[in-house]
Amino acid sequence: MTEVKAELVSVGTELLLGQIVNTNAAWISEQLAEKGVSVYYHSVVGDNFNRLAEVFLEAGKRSDIVFITGGLGPTEDDLTREAFQHISGLHIEEDQGTINKMEAFFAKINRTMTPNNRKQAHVFQDSKVLHNSVGIAPGIIVDYNKTLWVFMPGVPREMKAIMTEEVLPFLKETFVLKTVIRSRMLRFIGIGESQLEHNLRDLVSNQTNPTIAPLASEGEVALRLTAKAENNQEAEQLIDQIELKIKKEVGQYLYGYDNVTIEKTVFDLLKQKHLTIASAESLTGGAFASKVVEQGGASAIFNGAAVVYQPSSKVSALSVNDELIAAHGTVSKECAEAMASQVKKVYQSKLGISFTGVAGPEELEKQSAGTVYISICDHNNKHYTERFQFNGDRQTIRNRAVKKAFELLFYHLKK
């Protein structure tokens, strides 16, 4: 089998309610891609017998391997085994090795093992029992109706241990996988998703291998490049070739790769250039400073922050001229520039950055909600100031102001 089609079924009502984020599916997909296994479907289904059976039936029709996480615990709502038995007719039996492990565990912690715990030792007849090195419930692999079914606990730590120690080696021995799948994320800022796609329309229209997938998020956009090849080196070469073409068109907006953030990129640029920065924040209320100090080693580049929400605090904490405020207001280019230069002076930093504006919902100084000024004062006391009109609720406006500040710093530091 040269191509193995897989799908993932995540079981648990808590996933549907949003009480738990389904990190298992993303992690499993990533591991499988590295081994050349194509994941075509992700499903999430609650703890309901009939719906579980329906999902299992559909999965068995279209996939070579079905990975199922969750629903293997000791309680009545753990119905994964029962639903699969219903569609397969396979006999369920107790695995004595798991029973022995559970009994030893409860004896060690000096507790009585309740009868319902025995349910965790239930496996399908003639199945392969997968050792769980960090928990009690084992995994199970069973071959039914030309589909390989892999059952694992939903607890991420236990699932990852079983997947790494048992499942992936089994797949390597069982299937002849002639391809690998590699992905690379290119991250852009300062260009919208529609403009990015327009600039790359010829590349996107003619994509085959690698594929190009735009992904938008707040204030930035990414491209996921995915290649299939016989080995990692060939896949990386294919991605390198398409990346060069992309950079030729929109490379000026590229700030990083994969899991890097714009905050980390700006932090690294400041560090490389031996620059320090301080912030004066009104509507953002310290949110910019918080993002900076999330970075390890922030003390190397960050001197301090002043949250100056009221006009009086801009005067008392930063010595912004009250006559300037009277003449231009706090929501103005003039006030933003004064805040940036003064915070730079107060904290003796090479750069100062300021935020002033209207987060809303009401107007301020006859300025509408979403009006924001951001000013950078550089080491030569030259100002780079921009006015923005952001849409959204109060928190969205504040978040967008912070993201835009990192964008401005990125382009300023690239010069």
Automatic annotation (TrEMBL):
Ligase listed as a keyword: no
Coiled coil (residue ranges): 225-252
InterPro entries (alphabetical): CinA, CinA-like_C, CinA_C, CinA_KH, Competence-induced_CinA, MoaB/Mog-like_dom_sf, MoaB/Mog_dom
A Pfam family of this chain: CinA
Record keywords: Coiled coil
Gene3D superfamilies hit by this protein: 3.30.70.2860, CinA-like, MoaB/Mog-like domain
Residues of the MoaB/Mog domain: 7-174
Matches recorded under CDD domains: cinA
Family: Belongs to the CinA family.
Protein name: Putative competence-damage inducible protein
Organism, scientific name: Gracilibacillus orientalis
